[in-house]
Amino acid sequence: FDFRNKHRPFLLFVSLLHVHTPLITTEKFLGRSKHGLYGDNVEEMDWMVGELLDVISKKELKNTTFIYFASDHGGALEARSGNSRLGGWNGVYKGGKGMGGWEGGIRVPGIIRWPGVLPADIAIDEPTSLMDIFPTVIQLAGGAVPQDRVIDGRSLLPLLQGTAQHSEHEFMFHYCGVFLHAVRWHQKDSGTVWKAHYTTPVFQPNGSGACFRRGICPCFGDGTTHHDPPLLFDLSQDPSEANPLPADSEPL
């Protein structure tokens, strides 16, 4: 790595393909995992991230470098080879990549490291967005976000440094392509997070949690279901989105 800007602000963006499709593990990592090709890719990705962190440490930049690790979306469940599923696992969360609003497609890990500035081993349970990276990086570099347009992201620094207890995102809108599928409401005074689904994909086969017959879930048309009233979930109590709340029992 060429760190010509070692003593000036720099941005290093690394976009890894390893947990997307196609899975491209090198020969060195084939068979490394007990979880097949997808697991091998995770192993190689872990090694690559470690190599980057080692270089930053060796250049004595560890305490002056803000590192953010995240994923673009959840696992692509429909990825397969014959009868073997290659698309990863989204834990307790329903759905996966390309599904508009289900948690399995939009809830991803966000891991931040900045030794000496941010406390270690803390977990923040507040809704944030990958759009927040832009204003956070601008603030760290001493700049200002454009004032001639609406910027959807919010700096993460107040949350991370403990000067704010809640995310500035009261509402978050979840699209599938250009179609609004779901909206999340972060009710700040109670800490409750509500989610309304206006459109959901039709899983094929039924109950599978994915669109295996289509290969990818559609955003509109006969492969989707419109909900009026919308499906409502209390994510604070039901993160798996398994039990829609009846409108007549939830006046709020």
From TrEMBL:
The keyword ATP-binding does not apply. Its cofactor is Ca(2+). Keywords: Calcium, Hydrolase, Metal-binding, Signal. GO terms for molecular function: arylsulfatase activity; metal ion binding. GO terms for cellular component: endoplasmic reticulum. It holds the Pfam family Sulfatase. Residues 1-26 form the signal peptide. The keyword Metal-binding applies. InterPro entries: Alkaline_phosphatase_core_sf, Sulfatase, Sulfatase_N. Residues 230-252 are annotated as: Disordered. Transmembrane segments: none annotated. It comes from the Eukaryota. Residues 5-142 form the Sulfatase N-terminal domain. Belongs to the sulfatase family. PANTHER family: ARYLSULFATASE D (PTHR42693:SF5), ARYLSULFATASE FAMILY MEMBER (PTHR42693). This is ARSD Arylsulfatase. The lineage of its organism: Eukaryota, Metazoa, Chordata, Craniata, Vertebrata.
